[in-house]
Amino acid sequence: MSTANEHGYQTFKLGSFTFRRDEYFAHIGWTTRAGKPMSHTMDAGNFLRALMRDVAWGFFYGWVNFDNVVGTVNHYESVDLYAGAYNGTMKEAGVDLLENFPTAEIRATFEAMLDDWTNAVFDPFAAPQETGTPYGRKNGSNTAKITRARELAKRCVGLKDDLALRTDERGAPVNRAFADVPQEQPELHPEPGFENEVHAFNLFGFLSRSQVTWNPSFTSVVKHSYMCPTTEEHILPIIHGNDRVEWFFQMTDEIHWDCGDKNTGKPLARVIMKAGDMAAMPAYCRHQGYSPKRSMLLVWENGSPSLVYEIQRGESPEVPVQF
Amino acid sequence: MTAVAYQTKFGSLDRYEKGGVQAISDDVKNYAFSNCFEIASRSQPYERVVFGQNQIYVLECMRAEGQSPWFTCAHDEFALVMDGDIEIHLVKLGAAQTVPDAEKNGAILVEGAPQGARMGWMRLRRGHQALLPKNTAYQFRSAQPGVVILQTCKGDLSVERWAQICQTA
User: Fold this and answer.
1) Among A37, A157, B37, B84, which has the minimal tally of Cβ within 10 Å of its Cβ?
2) Do A271 and B125 make contact, defined as CB atoms within 8 angstroms?
3) CA angle in degrees (0–180, nearest 5) for B21-B82-B31
4) B151 contacts B50 by C-beta, under 8 angstroms
5) pLDDT of amino acid B4
6) Residues within 8 A of A (CB atoms), B 112-151 only
7) pLDDT single digits (tens) A243-278
8) CB-CB under 8 Å, B37 with A223
9) How far B154 CA lies from chain A's nearest CA (Å)?
C-alpha cells in the first residue's frame, strides 16, 4: 500500500493490478501479456457496492463481475482477479489479464481498499435512497457498516441457539418500502416439552426488517439446501456468473433480470419475475437484476461442496431440468 | 415532505400476475419458469409438485385444501405459506412409524394413524414459515384453498410435470 493520493485515498496493488480512486471514479490498471498498459474506469459508488458484496460474500459462488470488464472467480481456496478475461471483445483482442491469488491475500487487499475508499456517509450495502454520497475526497470511514456479517441460520431462524428474529430493539426496524407488511408472528401451540420443535416464524416480517440490499441470509437449512432470502432494491451491484444452477423464487413485487453468456457476456435472455414466479439461472449464464421497488427474493442455493466440481466433470447438468 | 407510501405486491390464488422469459439467444426452457399460484390452481390438494430442483434438493408447490394425509420424513423440511390460513399439526412418531432408512430423501405417507405424543400445532398465514422436524408426522388443515412451498429433498411423493408448469416458448 502506498501513501494517500491528492484525493486522500490510498492506492492499492495486487499482483499486476493497480487500484486508484479519485472523487468520482475507481481506476483499475494492468499490463497485458504483450506488455501493453491498459486501464478501466468505474463509477466509485458502483465499484464500492460491488466490492462490498465480493468481500461480504467471501467471493461467492463463481464469478463476481464488477461490470463487464473486471471481477473475480472463486476457486474456494484461491481467487482469480481478472480484467477483460470474460469480455468477448477484450479477450479476442488479447488485452485481458487474469491472475490467481490465495484467498487470504486478495481478501486482505479488498477489505483494506473497501475500508479506505468508503467515506463516513456512504453505506455500500444500502439502497441508493437510503445512504449518502460515495463521491468526493476522503472524508472519514464507515467501518461498522462495511463489516456487517451475513446472517446465517444453522437450522431455522428463531430456534433456540440459532439466528434470532429481527426487531426494533436489535436495530432492525421495518424498512420504508415494507411498511405494509404484516408483522404478526404465527400462532404456536406447542405441548409441553416441544417448544423448540413446534416452531414457525414470519419470514416476510423478518425480511421487511432487512437493513441491506442484495445480500442473502440463510433462514432455513435442509442438508446442503439453503433458503437464502434477501431484499432487493435498485440494481444488483454485480453481474453474478454461475458455477452452478441457481434458483430464484420471487416472493413479492418484481425483478427484471438480464442474462448473458458467462464467458463472453453475449445476451441470452431477459427474465421478468413477479410475485409467485420461479425461475432458474443456468450454470452457463451471468445475470444482473433490477428491482424497481424493494422486493423479497428467495435465492435457493445448493451449497454442496462437491457440486461445482461435478458440473466441471460433466456429472451434473448446467441446466436446471430437461423436459 | 410527505413520505412515499409503498405498496408491497403479493400474489394469491385469486390474484396473481405472471412474468416470463424473453428469449434473446437461448432456449426459454433452460430457465424453468413457472408460478406457484398457477401451479396450485391446477393441482390436486396436497400434491407435491416440484417446481425447483437442484440435484437431490427440491422446492415443492402444494395446494392446501381440506385435510392432508399425515406425512413424515427422515430429514427436516420447511413449509412456507404463500396464500391462505393453514394449520399444521405435529405428532412425535415412535420407531415403528419413522422412516426406516435415516438417509432416505423426501417425504412419505405415514402408514395408518400416527402413533405418538401430540407435539402441538401451528397456525400460519401468508409469509409464515414452519419447521417440519424430522421423524415427526405432520398434517396440514386448511378450510379454504391455500398455497404452501416445501423445502425438502426429492422423494417418493414428489410430482414432476415440468412441461405442464414451465414456459416452453
Assistant:
1) A37
2) no
3) 20
4) no
5) 83
6) 117-131, 133, 136, 149, 151
7) 889 999 999 999 999 999 999 999 999 999 999 999
8) no
9) 12
